[in-house]
Amino acid sequence: xxxxxxxxxxxxxxxxFLQLMDLHKIALYKTALAYLRNEQDALEAIQEVTxxxxxxxxKLREPSYIKTWLIRIMINYCxxxxxxxxxxxxxxxxxxxxxxxxxxEHMELLDAMKVLxxxxxxxxxxxxxxxxxxxxxxxxxxxxxxxxxxxxxxxLSILRDHLNEQEVxxxxxx
Amino acid sequence: MSINEESRxxxxxxxxxxxxxxxxxxxxAIMNGFLKSKQQNIRKRRLRYILLSSISAALLFIGFxxxxxxxxxxxxxxxxxxxxxxxxxxxxxxxxxxxxxxxxYMEEIALTKKQKGIKVTLDSAIKDESxxxxxxTIESDRERNxxxxxxxxxxxxxxxxxxxxxxxxxxxxxxxxxxxxKKTETWDFDHVxxxxxxxxxxxxxxxxxxxxxxxxxxxxxDSRKILLxxxxxxxxxxxxxxxxxxxxxxxxxxxxxxxxxxxKTLLNxxxxxxxxxxxxxxxxxxxxxxxSGSVGEDRHIYLQSNYFKKPKELYLVMSKIQAxxxxxxxxxxDTKKQTIIKAPDQKLxxxxxxxxxxxxxxxxxxxxxxxxxxxxxxxxDATGKEIKVExxxxxxxxxxxxxxxxxxxxxxxxxxxxxxxxxxxxxxxxKVKIRLK
Lengths: 174, 437
Fold this sequence. Notes:
The complex is a heterodimer of chains A (174) and B (437).
Chain A: H1 3-10, H2 14-36, H3 39-56, H4 66-89, H5 93-96, H6 104-113, H7 118-129, H8 134-141, H9 145-173
Helix pairs in contact in A: 1-2, 2-3, 2-4, 3-4, 7-9, 8-9
Chain B: H1 5-17, H2 23-70, H3 72-79, H4 85-93, H5 95-102, E1 107-115, E2 118-128, E3 131-140, E4 144-147, E5 149-156, E6 167-169, E7 175-177, E8 182-190, E9 199-206, E10 209-216, E11 224-234, E12 237-246, E13 251-257, E14 264-276, E15 281-282, E16 291-292, E17 299-303, E18 314-325, E19 330-334, E20 339-342, E21 348-354, E22 357-363, E23 376-380, E24 386-387, E25 391-394, E26 400-406, E27 417-421, E28 427-435
Antiparallel strand pairs in B: 1-2, 2-3, 3-8, 4-7, 5-9, 6-8, 9-10, 11-12, 12-13, 13-17, 14-15, 14-18, 16-17, 18-28, 19-20, 19-27, 21-22, 22-26, 23-24, 23-27, 25-26
Helix pairs in contact in B: 4-5
């Protein structure tokens, strides 16, 4: 999508906005699925994010950030949603049953992501699920590259520790 | 097993990319979010308009402030309510209310209840033979958006519902409340004689929390009714003025347009007021009930009260009424073909139908704005069946406005649809002055 189209959307052109949503829908859905882990919630998230994006797109200053801007709206929504869900249902055991990746190790990793705090989860999502460079993430989050690297390393080491723990547990059960 | 979390993350990403995505469901979700947004924007624009009018009311308040603070009774009364700016605002906008305060007729209630972060204070009330106005203030511990206050009931001392024939309004329907904001509103009841009633119980919900208050009011006042039965004519359209009743809360002008004889259907009486011998004016009521009765019925138009003033001479003056030709006093449309079959004139145009919502443009000008949401009255379809619309909408553009309504979903409508007009930007104008005293 060229910048002209994005600017049109920012200026309130409905058609351009819908084209924009169409272009980024898979990225948004993927993010929602990684966070929420089931289709129904992810679809609801898409609806809400479309709503929020439409309400706020006039405030977007830099057209080239459109994709990450949308993904960040999604991440914020998911974080709020998970907090709310936790408040209502306590821990989300109920939802862990909704497996959707065939590979067990993949599932394990997604499960492990739940132990990350919001900030760590966000950088991991942007870096590995949306292929963003550290430089880009630093621009979006408005933090120095060094800080992003620190966050990322911390997030990875938390993941590693958690996965190691799981590994040990599994071995014990064997 | 060696764990390289980085490569595993990349693998997970690839696995996710290969998942089948529910494409059509995603598209549907985007469309729903988009439509919700469009609707919301219409409402937002309306809210902004309401906000604007309260700002101009605040400006008005500056003008009155010196006058009111000069009154000892008022100063005395307000001293009991520190920081009740909202209440002051309300009272200042209505000469009847400020008269009631000055003459110690308004009664203090001052009951506060707190529930889940919402604090509601029942400030005070005025009651008489025409009904009652209750002033209350809401405060929130956090930001709340699009909340509303909804009445559950109003009971008298015997537990009887006093709202049998009465109507009521809560001022604004949907509002936002910031953290620590105070919002003063009224419950305004009419068509119910409460002169002899002393104990009340009111229940209403704010942001879905129920608040119940017991309170009593002692003050009584006799209303003064002036019988007229006089016919006046404005641009040869005749109106029978039955009576004018002066209550402490409001002045009730009871009139009946002579629909049978007239060539036009009269909609809203825009300029109607009381004037005394010195030229002091008591106009319509901006916040709260402004009257009752619509097209084809007896009309009661409420004016600000001069009950406590007792001027030597008093006149009823009117000069401007919204009116449409009798044979064109309804809007007839076809929602399938998206066409306007009949309308009073060209000011209403550009009909658009999307899903259940029907929109029009109306060239009405600034002064008509507050009537935008009142345009559409009752709806009947081709079979004569009445249709209950879900929502009436109006934007607050500068020149042409968008107005519309939402038809009930899952209900077939037989075209054409006939909509009784309850407001329209065409007028008859001629000054009429009747002496009341």
